[in-house]
What does this fold into?
Amino acid sequence: MNKPFKLSGPNPLNHLKDQFLLDPEVAYLNHGSYGACPRPVFEAYQRYQHELEREPATLLYREFTKRMQVAREGLSLFLNCGSDQIAFVRNVTYGLNMVAQSLKINDGDRVLATEHEYGAVNRMWETICEERGAHFVKVKMPLPLKSASSAINLLKEQIDPSVKIVTFPHIAAESAQLLPITELTEVVRSAGAVSVIDGAHAPGQIKVNLKEIAADFYVGNCHKWMLSPKGAGFVYASRKHENKIRPPAISWGNISEGESSLLLENEWQGTTDISSILAVQDSINFLNKNQWFQTVVPRSSDLISKFHATILDITGMDDLYLSADLQPPQMRSYLLPEGDHSSLHAELFHRFKVEVPVFLNPKGNMFRISVQAYNDESDLERLTKALREMLG
It folds into this structure.
């Protein structure tokens, strides 16, 4: 019987590790899946919950419009877009469904996607296309991609007048590829199609400039790399499309300040807890206070790079990043050798106290690591030691 793994020697804390609520016994290398909220932000979130319960009518009636406007203004500054161009939603999955259900898709139309879409996004488009007689088409993008420009060329080859919508991730969830979305969006725009970007993993990991990207729709999470509490995401719509979005639930539609249907029909969805939305500004303040893009993100990237060659040596597999342009700063995915890896995730956690996601699919099994402010070398050392034992 295998003995539980014990890390020898001290596990030194970096200066931000104690700011998070994560179990200190776990090498948590899975920030990309669910995020993690810092203590100051979580405490602010709890204050908003207490405020809501103490006087619900104040927060949800008398002050709702003002408070939500302030929240959107803060997020719009972070993303560089108009505050009336974004609406809060609970997560990217919900937001993408809202966009997809609102778009006009006719019989015979084609919806183009890459082979790097999140599983739930694939299922969503497949379902909608089947219901409307449209065709959901995948652009083959092999792993590893040769370069960012190769992704652009592969997409170009598949676009024709029948393509009405093109969807792609900013950072792919499983393969952790950073796609050249500004260039891809330009290709889609030139073809007269609508661009829909899954930005679940981007805001907070990289600086997202929505004005520069110029997509028709960009849907992102705040609860992942922006560090907000769970239940906060956003939908951005370009001016051309801001009046074409309708939520699944039709409510009053006259609560918010603004003129677009993006706000008037989406912001008020009946009684709900908006505490996670109000705490988004606290998460932005936390990022700014700790100089996130100047210090934390580069440090995280350096930490991954330090162990990258070691992990490839252990797996014996090809590097998924032939071009540095395809590397997100805080995520990497690694192919696994042939074999049954169905228990790998569970064994890494239960035997070694290492948390990483493992993806099993016909095109190649892989695992992904995420490095955040709370990680240090000891976490990666524990992972590599565990992988040597299990894959050796």
